[in-house]
Amino acid sequence: MLSLPEAFKNKLTELMGQDEAGAFFETYNHHKALGLRVNNLKADSDLLTTRPEFHLEPVPFCSTGFYYDNADMPGKHPFHQAGLYYIQEPSAMFVAETVDAQRGDRVLDLCAAPGGKSTQIAASLNGSGLLVSNEIFPKRAKALSENIERMGISNALVTNETPERLANYFPGYFDKILVDAPCSGEGMFRKDPEAIEYWSPEHVRECARLQAQILEQAYLMLKSEGILVYSTCTFSPEEDERMIESFLEKHPDLELLPIEKKFGIEKGRPEWTESNDPELSKTARLWPHRLHGEGHFVAKLCKHGEAPSHKEKFANSAKETMLKDFRQFEKQTLREKLNGIFFYAGSQLFLLPDGCPDFSKLKVVRAGIHLGEQKKNRFEPNHALALALPAEAFQNTLPLHIDDNQWERYLHGETLPLESGLKGWTAVTIEGFPLGWGKAAGGILKNFYPKGLRRRGLN
Ligand SMILES: C[S@@+](CC[C@H](N)C(=O)[O-])C[C@H]1O[C@@H](n2cnc3c(N)ncnc32)[C@H](O)[C@@H]1O
């Protein structure tokens, strides 16, 4: 059993009562639940469920979620590098299900790194609308950006901003906002035992102060009739029901919406708040002793009041004359011409989503698809382009297969021998799914798998 802080044990025992607390603490004798979520932007679940290397059982509250077996090691499988799934704690999958993003929505994920929920929201948007995926810490924003790239997401802006600066930029802009708040992480003690070290009653209070500030900024960015989902991975009422209680008090135009309670998902606990308002039982709690997953809290709100107005300003496309080298590369490498808003950041070229807002004053880490770099008189593609398109989009492919070790060599950065007379930019695929670029010449494939992603050892 994990060694839990005494104050945490006493608090939860007092809240839950001896009987329930007994069942709850018993879960700390067991391993955390392991989950992965299939990326519907690229593949169907059948692709994984029918493969012998995976032993998957459906997560009941997420149609693309699966529990996997410890021996499966999905992080080491090349399908992971190809972005066919995201390894995600099962309970966490319920949060983006609650956001329920619809085609064409403008969605903000305000506290997004490393990107579990953003990548799930993007799958629901299926390339339409806009996802602004924000992370305040630069290092975490980079990891988020890499995951957005790996999953082949074309309609996201990854920003590295404070909630306050974003709120100045996007007043009343979003249809849906997710605040997956930084929290005391009590629900993750089995997954991330480090969270135990940080835990203290003072830390819980600090988190609650920060969450209230973040929620205020989210409120400003929400359209009238927009939906706000608030979630934490902690059990403390100060960060959960009481946070929603005081948020509702501050904003009477907010309505708490019911969340369906199925598959062991339970009601929020109004009895743990000041007001004891039964409305708060519309919120949801995911408990490790009630379902196979870690601890989470989720609330869903609708804003009925007026939202601050904003002037729409869109990003402009680069002139066609500036795309000469790109167009030549495109003609030689892709089967179809790409259309849309082309945007240069220095020599780097991006293809922005339709209706992309002007983001010139924001810290943007990634915008749409990173197509590549304009070099002197030629264009060099970026890894993101290989991952954003299906294999059929490329003129040249080098198909690799799981039962042959060539894919391991490719992911290590090695040059590959070629039997065919391939020439030029080539998408390397694994079982028909792009893994990255290579450049063919003289019977070998030069490896363009990004250095930072290369595998260091065979394991
Ligand atoms: C629970 S994690 C998000 C997990 C993420 N949504 C996912 O599904 O992968 C909370 C995030 O909030 C960020 N954060 C910390 N302080 C913040 C602040 N003051 N404003 C906004 N985000 C903050 C943390 O860096 C962290 O990445």
> What is the CA-based Rg, rounded?
23 Å
Principal-axes shape call: globular
Put simply, the count of helices is 14
How would you name the CATH homologous superfamily of the largest domain?
Vaccinia Virus protein VP39
Largest sheet descriptor: 10 strands, mixed
Topology:
Layout: H1 6-16, H2 18-26, E1 35-38, H3 45-49, E2 57-58, E3 65-67, H4 78-81, E4 85-87, H5 93-99, E5 106-109, H6 116-125, E6 130-134, H7 138-150, E7 156-159, H8 163-169, E8 174-180, H9 194-198, H10 201-221, E9 222-232, H11 241-250, E10 254-257, E11 266-267, E12 284-286, E13 296-303, H12 324-333, E14 341-345, E15 348-352, E16 364-367, E17 369-375, E18 378-381, H13 383-388, E19 397-400, H14 406-411, E20 416-417, E21 424-430, E22 433-441, E23 444-447
Parallel strand pairs: 5-6, 5-8, 6-7, 8-9, 19-21
Antiparallel strand pairs: 1-3, 1-4, 2-3, 7-16, 9-13, 10-13, 11-12, 12-13, 14-15, 15-17, 17-18, 20-23, 21-22, 22-23
Helix pairs in contact: 1-2, 5-6, 8-10
Bound molecules: S-adenosylmethionine.
S-adenosylmethionine (SAM) binds at residues 92, 111-117, 135-137, 140, 163, 180, 182, 210, 214.
